[in-house]
Amino acid sequence: MNYEEAIDFIHSTYKFGSKLGLDNITKLTELLGNPQDSYKIIHIAGTNGKGSTSNMIHDVLVSSGYKTGLFISPYLEEFTERIQINKIHIDKESLAKITTLVKEKIDIMISEGYNHPTEFEVVTAIGFKYFEEQKINFLVLEVGLGGRFDATNVVKNTLVSIITSISYDHMQYLGNTLEKIAFEKAGIIKRDSKVIIYPQSDNIKDVVKNQAKLKNSEIYEVDEKNIRKIKGDITGQEFEYLKKDVFNLPNLKINLLGEHQLYNAATALCTLEVIKKSGYNIDEHSIEKGFINCKFAGRFEIINKEPIIILDGGHNINGIEYFSKAIKEYFGDKKIILFYGMLEDKNPDDVIDYLVHLSKEIYTLTPNNPRAMSSNDMAYLIRQHSDIKVTPIQKYNEILNILNGFDEKEVIAFVGSLYMIGEVRTLIKKDLNLKN
Predict the structure, then answer these.
(1) 193 shares its domain with 252
(2) How far apart are CA 391 and CA 375, in angstroms?
(3) Which PANTHER family is this protein grouped with (predicted)?
């Protein structure tokens, strides 16, 4: 099959739903020769912060001279974003070739009585095989959903496991308490391994630490007191890492905005300390270079400055809290013009109060996903909470005309589902290129 046929095949497997469990992915990877066993893996689970932490670690390892894979979910604008090596997306020819091979193995599975793998299982298998063929040193592997029964958890050994910020999300699969969700996330911890825990509440950390102890794994708790912020504005943040026993770092700069990104940076640094102590060559220069080179599209990303246009994939209550804090940090009490769209199963009702208090006007959008809440329904929901002006948008190409009507001093933010943010980013980038 060619690239277009490969993409069609992958997306056609969406109909098989999202099924937690490792039987299918275990069989599929066995038929592929267990490619995931051929490189060192940094495995990352959590509700928020996985992508930022993954990218920072990946970019430092690349700066250290290691051929490093990155597996993320979901993609923002192009499918090939999901499978990267050294910041370069999988090429279309490789994707087509490996998808053809994976489909052949799936046909064998089905003939032997197995269920058809889900879309995420198919993509995971493609990624694992590509990384093996490219002979990478490290794979920074982001969990898709949960952890314990996520397809990525077919990996048997990890160099280190990371648990990032945990909050309410995917409760129909993971449970309706933070402790239950933390238990599922902690399912990625392997026996006799190492575990990094993002700074968060004790009830969550206790669950993770208990699972680590049951697996006889070393626990490394990230201490937010090791971060001293020096300065920050919409161009980036500068901070000092006060822990000096492994790295003696100069002041570090990151492009990622918001206080939570400093804690993600601390989590990445703690992970890099563990990797260095495991015998790998990581130094202060590679960290400094990796951090300053790290960019993560769609996460409080300022894509235009006059007017300021922010894109943020805050798609659950924790993400919206981070977004709200960042808006107040960088823009004070200034009211913003908000564009908002969310998936219906993300409990949009819970986050609206955060958003209306920031906004002087709201436009609603329908994310490109079968689970999306329509722009009309979202507008109706917001009106139940506030008398703020709300306008539902029916077609994305209406956005550009609306933006052109705003003053250059406005602050405009698109927030919500990454399926929406990706489409908006493509649209606005194309418009900016046409103007320049």
Answers:
(1) yes
(2) 9
(3) DIHYDROFOLATE SYNTHETASE-RELATED, FOLYLPOLYGLUTAMATE SYNTHASE-RELATED
pTM score over 0.85: yes
Instruction: Give the span between the Cα atoms of 408 and 342, in whole angstroms.
Output: 27
Q: Mean pLDDT for the chain?
A: 93
> In this structure, what token pair is assigned to residue 362?
């709201």
Q: Confirm if 320 and 354 have CB atoms less than 8 A apart.
A: yes
Let me know: does 325 contact 355? Beta carbons within 8 Å.
no
Q: How far apart are CA 129 and CA 137, in angstroms?
A: 14
Question: Looking at the predicted structure, is the pLDDT value of residue 128 above 60?
Answer: yes
Sign of CA dihedral 33, 30, 149, 97: positive
For residues 211 and 178, membership in a common domain is answered with yes
CA angle 30/32/33 to nearest 5° reads 65
Among the ranges given (50-54, 72-76, 161-165, 337-341), the one the predictor scored with the smallest mean pLDDT = 72-76
Judge if 327 and 265 occupy the same domain.
no
In whole angstroms, what is the distance from residue 393 CA to residue 411 CA?
Answer: 19
The number of folded domains in the chain is: 2
- Name the nearest CA neighbour of 145 among 25, 34, 50: 50
CB 392 within 8 A of CB 376: yes
Rounded distance, CA 289 to CA 26, Å?
A: 37
CATH code of the domain containing 266: 3.40.1190.10
Could you tell me how far CA 284 lies from the centroid of its own chain?
A: 26
Q: For tokens 């993002």, what's the residue?
A: 198
Residue 259 has pLDDT above 80, yes or no: yes
Please check whether residue 309 is in contact with residue 412, taking contact to mean a CB–CB distance below 8 angstroms. yes
Instruction: For residue 308, give the CATH number of its domain.
Output: 3.90.190.20
Of 28-37, 348-357, 387-396, 409-418, the least confident: 348-357
- 278 shares its domain with 310: no
Q: Are residues 320 and 277 in the same domain?
A: no
Query: What does the angle CA 422 – CA 424 – CA 393 come to, to the nearest 5 degrees?
Result: 125
Are both 7 and 29 inside the same structural domain? yes
Q: Write down which residue in 260, 293, 326 finishes a domain.
A: 293
> Are 53 and 264 in contact, with CB atoms under 8 Å apart?
yes
Q: Is 14 left (phi over 0), alpha (psi -120 to 50) or beta?
A: alpha
Range of the domain at 350: 301-435
For residue 330, which of 233, 229, 260, 235 has the smallest C-alpha distance?
Answer: 233
Same domain, 239 and 155: yes
Q: Is 70 exceeded by the pLDDT of residue 173?
A: no
Q: Are residues 342 and 256 in the same domain?
A: no
